[in-house]
Amino acid sequence: MSQPVSKVALIAVTENGVRLACRLRERLGYGSLYRPARYGKPQFAWEHSYSTALKEKVEELFCRVDQFVFFLATGATI
Prior knowledge:
The protein is of the alpha/beta class. It has helices spanning about 15-30, 55-60; strands spanning about 10, 30-35, 45-50, 65-70. It has 2 helices and 4 strands; from the N terminus they run βαββαβ. About 15% of the residues are buried.
């Protein structure tokens, strides 16, 4: 697979979202996963934890990535 042109941020909030985001990242072969620090230490180089509010993490990444994929609980609204 050729290297993608865009930078993708996979943002997971729930534990199940982290699992789904990992599956998508493994299948795509690119992208960075950002998930709450409460789920433990990152296991892969492309996995990053955050301890700030989701809003702050998105603001931080907004100018650095081309695409966002959010894995949120049902009923969440942005």
